[in-house]
What we know:
The structure holds two protein chains of two kinds. By secondary structure, chain A is α/β, with parallel strands linked by helices. Chain A has helices spanning 12-24, 35-44, 61-71, 86-94, 107-139; strands at residues 4-8, 28-32, 49-53, 76-81, 99-102. The radius of gyration of chain B is 21 Å and the shape is elongated.
Amino acid sequence: xxxxxxxxxDEVEFLEALxxxxxxxxxxxxxxxxxSNAVDALGAGDYDAIVLDLQMPxxxxxxxxxxxxxSHPDLQVILLTGQATLxxxxxxxxxxxxxxxxxxxxxxxxTDKIKKAQAKKMVIVEKKTEKKVNDILKSKGW
Amino acid sequence: xxxxxxxxxxxxxxxxxxxxxxxxxxxxFAVINEAAGLIEDFTLMAERGxxxxxxxLKSAANSIQGQIRRGDAIIKNMNxxxxxxxEDVREVNLVxxxxxxxxxxxxxxxxxxxxxxxxxxxxxxxxxSPFDLTRLLHSSIAAALDRLEAGDTLVxxxxxxxxxxxxxxxxxxxxxxxxxxxxxxxxxxxxxASVSVNEKTGTSELLLExxxxxx
Lengths: 142, 215
């Protein structure tokens, strides 16, 4: 099954080239070059993973991460940044980011993390579905 | 401010600019990395029998060349900034000094979604500390950016004024964006600089007096 990925970065050429490389690798990619576009994309689609730049002109990546975690708690977020500091990494992981990568990133390592993100999301969704089914079975008299 | 505090403030400024420049360079490398990777992907696909599309190769190569030009301009500005500490004072071309400060501040403006541009500039030079001048202009731009909003434009120019120079900071449709020198008062005092607002034009003026002219 193709991994559905939302790529968020204000560097348009970076977005174009990386999304094309990910599509070559069989992924379904949506891009957003601003935080506001990302919010629209989040509302419109269902993704396995989000690759998010830490520094966006209209919103700090950490703020964006908080927003995503609040509205889509199952979504796996990989932060990709040119300014990888230990503090930012720790803060991102504490907020629930799945991983933190420094630019320029290795495509194989990124692809691997996206596949893991998809697997992780499937486990979460399966667990939730299982819980829902159990709750229904317990609440019904049959 | 003590000499030690002043040295520390100068170092902090140097660090802030260096961090911003290194981040920009990382972005340049990231684009080059993906464009070069795309060319590699195309060649691997061609080896497996898929036809190569010359236009796609050309576009990736153009992207790499464009990013190298961008990176070269960033490094050139960083080099000029690093050399601003070579001499304590020297004759400084203020138009060039302003262009450097604007280039080094552009990323800060971009992050606030404000367009930063050079306005009218008249040739003017004076004896000054190149490093302190860059710091003063950078601080002025930062203070002006604090008063602007996403979508605004900040225009900065320079002209000779009473043996010194006057830097104008304006934003079309808005009042002068620099109200006082409060965010950089110690540096302004040390450089004989002061801030005023031209009510007629709605422009902020950063007046830099010729060294020794206030004594």
